[in-house]
């Protein structure tokens, strides 16, 4: 550090000036080194092993068990404070659709055995994107504002 003050305030007392001169003389090399150089090498104290290993294994990461989520698998890793989001329109399946699904699913499972019948259906309007928590409400409001002028069948998009 340099002996020069960041801001030079005027003083009515000569004691302040005397203390500053005495402090500069008490530090070895004070005033003799340019500001960018330090007379003594900066050394950091080592961090004790007990501190370095204090919290090992306590950080809880997300549990990615696809069995708990209908077989769905993340396309990007979870980060705290991020929300995987997508825009979709719910679809209420009619009897004809469910009959066709019952007919096609066994055949499709011969090619992709992990396929399962879902309970609810939707039409995705976006890919999964990441939103920070504080972006969610402005995003939903902007989506509602844009959809307000949409002319077409009565659709209520959802954000998940």
TrEMBL record:
Task: Write out the ranges of the annotated region (Disordered).
Answer: 1-45
Instruction: Give the catalysed reaction(s), semicolon-separated.
Output: a 3'-end uridylyl-uridine-RNA = a 3'-end 2',3'-cyclophospho-uridine-RNA + uridine; a 3'-end uridylyl-adenosine-RNA = a 3'-end 2',3'-cyclophospho-uridine-RNA + adenosine
What's a GO cellular component annotated to this UniProt protein? nucleus
- Which key words tag this protein in UniProt? Hydrolase, Lyase, Nuclease, Nucleus
- The question of whether Metal-binding is a record keyword is answered with no
Q: Name one GO biological process term.
A: U6 snRNA 3'-end processing
Q: Where is the signal peptide?
A: none
| GO molecular function (one) | lyase activity
Q: Which Gene3D superfamilies match?
A: Cyclic phosphodiesterase
Function text: 3'-5' RNA exonuclease that trims the 3' end of oligo(U) and oligo(A) tracts of the pre-U6 small nuclear RNA (snRNA) molecule, leading to the formation of a mature U6 snRNA 3' end-terminated with a 2',3'-cyclic phosphate. Participates in the U6 snRNA 3' end processing that prevents U6 snRNA degradation. In addition also removes uridines from the 3' end of U6atac snRNA and possibly the vault RNA VTRNA1-1.
Q: How does it assemble?
A: Interacts with PLRG1, CDC5L and PRPF19.
Q: What is this protein called?
A: U6 snRNA phosphodiesterase 1
What is the species of this protein? Answer: Panthera tigris altaica
Lineage of the organism: Eukaryota, Metazoa, Chordata, Craniata, Vertebrata
- Which gene specifies this protein's sequence? USB1
